Amino acid sequence: MVAMPPDSVEAAAEWLRKHFEPESARGVRVIYQFDLSGPGGGPLRVTLDDGSIDVGRNRAELPHVVVHTAGSDFCDVLAGTENAELLYMAGRITIEGDLSLALRMRTFFQRRRV
What we know:
114 residues
């Protein structure tokens, strides 16, 4: 059975904390800012610092990557029911900053079975 997908920014923040793989982020220092629109949306900041994670409901001052998308699309990507690259190509995700860091984000998190 797969864990329930997140359905709000708060649930997405918890999902990110729970599925973070510290070993994959050793030596990485990056700040992601997610601006999530729609119901249950809002700002979400994800800071990775040498194998640790800090997730907050605030805006980052100097993010390396800013992602704009609907909160529902973000949650669907986390759940694995949507493909971030396809959403990007369809214009449903826009990215400011380092695109390679945006693509690398998925390597820091795993979808675990429960």
